[in-house]
User: What shape does this take?
Amino acid sequence: MKELYLIVGFAQIVFVIFMQWQIYLKKIILTFALSSIIIAAFLFLDGIMLNSTNLLILGTLTITIRGFFIPRYMLKMLNLAYKEREPRHIVPPAASIIISLFLVVLAYIVYHFTLYNITYIKAGSIPIALILQGMFLIISRNNAFIQLTGYMVMENSLFLFAGYLFPELPLIIEGGILLDLVGVVMISSIVIRLREDAISAITEQFEKFKG
Amino acid sequence: MLYFLSAVQLLFVIGFAPLAAGVFNTLTEKFESKKGPSPLQPYYDLYKLFGKQSVVPKVASSLFQIVPYITFSMYLFLTLVLPIITAFPLSFGPVVDFIGGGLVFGAIGTLKKIASLDSRSNYAHLGTSRTSSIGALSEPIVVLIFITFGVISHTNNPYVINNIMQTSSHWYFSLVHWFVVFAFFMALLVETGKLPIESHSSNEFGMIDQAIEMEYSGTELALMKWGGYIKQFILMSVFLNVFLIPFWVPMKIELKGVLLYAALHLLKMLILILIFSVIQSTVSKYKLFKNFEYVAMAFSFAFLAIVVFYTIGGAM
Assistant: This one.
């Protein structure tokens, strides 16, 4: 299981770096969906190995909500062509890829000197790296959909962390977080859409004056 | 025996390098539903160029004319020191390790750039500028890859690394190895001038390496082109024999085994060329400034290999 955890964990890190590289929102959302499906598969396998119903339920929730429902909803919201990509970044993609990479190293160093003395699991730094990368995805991009994806990457890392290190963590906490998130995503997306529509309605008149 | 095998390897590379380039061009055209040139086209091109008169820019110094001969002989030297059809060092094998080989590649690149600057052509200068910009970022990736393999095998000798990869399933299936494979593959596309980095067309937008040899003609251009084919063949062979499929490369000094593997190597090469042609036909070219993002991704894979190495507890 340790080997599988390593593969899943580093695949997640690569997915986040890939998200930093991309400017097309659709690709970013689909990458997030794929990463959630992989985490769900990992939780399933972990649940079967440990004979834990909690993990099986958590895996089902993850694949249904994060693997399919949320990505599908977000893609549905991206119905206008101009919303499909984010050409202007706060941090340039090449720089964000490198920064994201160094966050992985930072997580390894921080974990090694703190939590490692309690857990004694060397690969425990992976979820911490994912949390830092998710945070960086939020602050390095302007687009609200990508920021939401960054937030959900942080959540995914928590599931990976809990699923591997603390499989007996009460399900209610994890399920609760998951369901809360659905609500947050829906409301945020609607609010964002309303705001963007309102702003574009105002700016459209001025775009006519562009030479 | 080792001298004889060295000569066999040298002839093998010199002889089949243009064919590999020809097969790649043919397959790429076939993927695009075109008839495509014959796989032997690079041979015809070389034959034609060797028979043509050389034209040298009036302002260029003698260095401009000497460099193709020097770089071609340096490529020939590299064929003698890398594991192409043998997994045991040939006569000149102990002369350099991976880093040494990388330095020779670097020296060839530098000489080509100096010569192209000497031609005073705007296109050649443009190519030099672009090659230097991308090379400054892609070369450290290759060095990082060699360092990672050095950490695994405690050596920088490509033959030892091949033997370890052939015999140790632990390292072959490890994440460290596969991250390195991805990083090297991405770097290979940069070094061999393939899409999405470089498109070989007649306009200057996609030119990178191609622009460097813009002012050459006749024999010198033939040597530059042939050198380019050899470079591509060597890098692809190293990728196959040390990184991706290190198996079946003969570890014992035996002529029959080496000759059999030489045929098998061409088959391995064909598979890699097929992958290259699929990429070439399906991926569009990046804008020049986007190339740096691609290089950053390749660097990420190489760097993550080292992070994985420490995460799994170092040398086990």
About this structure: Chain A touches chain B at residues 6-7, 10, 13-14, 17-18, 21, 93-94, 97-98, 100-101, 104-105, 108, 122-123, 125-126 (CB under 8 Å). DSSP finds eight helices and no strands in chain A. Residues 21 and 200 of chain A are 27 Å apart (CA to CA).
